[in-house]
Task: inverse folding
């Protein structure tokens, strides 16, 4: 590999395996899936480097086959939250004092382990535990987490390299200190890479972490912890517990040493957390860092000059990959009337070729939504749309949870641009279309900007550069990640730093130096070599 500052390997994006029929990687992954399905595992919590088990065992099942048991995890209680905090605080001094090169080496080793010997295991865990097909698992639980680890090491060295100027006779330097106290990582179900990045990014900068994953992601979180342990993360640096949210929050957000939260999840939960932190602000040693990426009501805006087939592909991929359970998934689209019939035809043709089922069958493009709660919520939106006189179901609309939590990719057409499914986050395989007249292009851009409280991702399709320029300016605050002639999903670490504003989060851009800067507190040191011994300045001299 090429080398850069202090001989740190220059980060490159991890190559993506195709898993095409007949390839060795396909056969290897299929074998890992079969092995995982053949046994039940006992998943512990990891606190202060120890495996911790309880008598309360919670089953883990594939969302697409909810009667099959992959194993059980030990659910904890308040005592395990406190033990995790105690372990993090006890480990803090030694970890913060460790040279950055040694911290970097640990996480670079973790990246190599995931890219190599753990690749099949972590992909299989993601496919079974979160119902991601082979490609979606590969770009997430293998490539993206590897990219996070490698690029974050590079960003860390760049942060340390940044130093102020020094005038003659003095030396100015900046130390990037870890935050006081501990950091809380609260991670979602939908990306194994996010579950890995949220605790490791602060840890890389010298912080110690307590980590609570979504219960529906614990199966693959366990593999991540196996990797971190093998890579050499010391005891107490990352502590993983499985405790319900209110119990964990009641202890963490009242603790005087709470230093910050790294969060991905719902807007409602994040706002509640922010409020709770505010209510406890007088208890803390320092103002906590609050970093969060939350929901989205992501859009595809189409100009009359766009190509219908390109728009249709952006809809079918952007709305339905991983069953629409991406924060960036397209869930509303604005199509000009001159293109609508062609776009509709292409989308319907695509959806007719979709196969839906378990991830073990690599020919299935669509798998299950994450759990029964999500299924019921999504089904309710669809059923209400079927009953509305403002909506027509263009494709899909069916759902069945008898074997797995399957929801057909669903396309709704509405005459009301403020209909519920145009405004509210659904987090499932549902997209709503509003058809507008081409002459109303600029008015529709205004509509896009004002319809949703979110501002995560969005896309504009046009072959007219003037129209593109108008859209880029009109939608300046509408999306933190904005795509021109491409679907609004698929951000790549090191290429498209990810995050949004408004109701979508703090826009601290995971996968960039911006995010890592949130986990340090700089100290400026000025050293004067020859110290003055007279207070008088030249201007005090008397005129002659």
Result:
């Amino acid at each position: 590999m090429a080398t850069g500052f202090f001989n740190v390997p220059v980060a490159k994006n991890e190559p993506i395996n195709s898993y095409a029929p007949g390839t060795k990687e396909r056969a290897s992954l299929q074998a890992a899936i079969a092995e995982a399905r053949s046994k039940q595992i006992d998943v512990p919590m990891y606190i202060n480097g120890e495996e911790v088990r309880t008598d309360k065992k919670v089953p883990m099942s594939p969302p697409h086959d909810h009667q099959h048991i992959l194993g059980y995890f030990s659910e904890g209680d308040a005592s395990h939250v406190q033990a995790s905090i105690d372990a993090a605080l006890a480990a803090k001094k030694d970890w913060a004092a460790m040279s950055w090169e040694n911290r970097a080496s640990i996480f670079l080793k973790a990246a190599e382990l995931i890219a190599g010997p753990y690749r099949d295991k972590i992909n299989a865990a993601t496919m079974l535990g979160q119902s991601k097909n082979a490609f979606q698992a590969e770009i997430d639980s293998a490539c993206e987490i590897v990219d996070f680890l490698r690029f974050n090491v590079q960003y860390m060295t760049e942060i340390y390299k940044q130093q102020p100027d020094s005038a003659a006779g003095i030396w100015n330097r900046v130390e990037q200190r870890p935050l006081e106290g501990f950091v809380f990582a609260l991670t979602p179900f939908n990306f194994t890479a996010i579950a890995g990045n949220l605790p490791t990014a602060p840890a890389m900068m010298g912080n110690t972490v307590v980590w609570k994953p979504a219960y529906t992601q614990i199966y693959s979180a366990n593999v991540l912890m196996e990797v971190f342990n093998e890579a050499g993360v010391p005891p107490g640096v990352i502590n993983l517990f499985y405790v319900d949210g209110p119990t964990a929050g009641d202890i963490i957000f009242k603790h005087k040493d709470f230093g910050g939260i790294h969060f991905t999840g719902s807007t409602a939960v994040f706002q509640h957390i922010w409020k709770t932190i505010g209510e406890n602000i007088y208890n803390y040693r320092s103002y906590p860092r609050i970093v969060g990426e939350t929901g989205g009501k992501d859009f595809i805006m189409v100009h009359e000059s766009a190509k219908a087939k390109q728009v249709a592909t952006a809809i079918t991929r952007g709305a339905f990959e991983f069953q629409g359970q991406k924060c960036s998934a397209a869930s509303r689209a604005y199509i000009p009337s001159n293109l609508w019939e062609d776009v509709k035809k292409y989308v319907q043709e695509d959806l007719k070729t979709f196969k839906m089922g378990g991830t073990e069958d690599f020919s299935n493009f669509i798998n299950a939504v994450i759990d029964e709660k999500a299924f019921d919520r999504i089904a309710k939106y669809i059923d209400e749309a079927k009953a509305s006189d403002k909506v027509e179901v263009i494709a899909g609309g069916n759902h069945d949870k008898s074997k797995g939590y399957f929801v057909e990719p669903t396309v709704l057409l509405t005459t009301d641009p403020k209909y519920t499914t145009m405004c509210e986050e659904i987090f499932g395989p549902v997209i709503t279309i509003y058809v507008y007249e081409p002459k109303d292009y600029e008015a529709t851009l205004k509509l896009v900007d004002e319809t949703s409280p979110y501002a995560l991702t969005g896309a504009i399709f046009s072959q007219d550069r003037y129209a593109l320029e108008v859209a880029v300016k009109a939608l300046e605050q509408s999306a933190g990640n904005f795509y021109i002639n491409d679907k609004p999903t698929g951000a790549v670490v090191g290429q498209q730093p990810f995050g949004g504003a408004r109701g979508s989060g703090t826009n601290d851009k995971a996968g960039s130096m911006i995010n890592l800067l949130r986990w340090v507190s700089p100290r400026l040191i000025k050293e004067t070599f020859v110290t003055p011994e007279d207070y008088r300045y030249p201007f005090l001299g008397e005129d002659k």
Observations:
- The longest helix spans residues 134-161.
- The mean pLDDT is 96.
- The first strand starts at residue 41 and ends at 43.
- DSSP finds 16 helices and 23 strands in the chain.
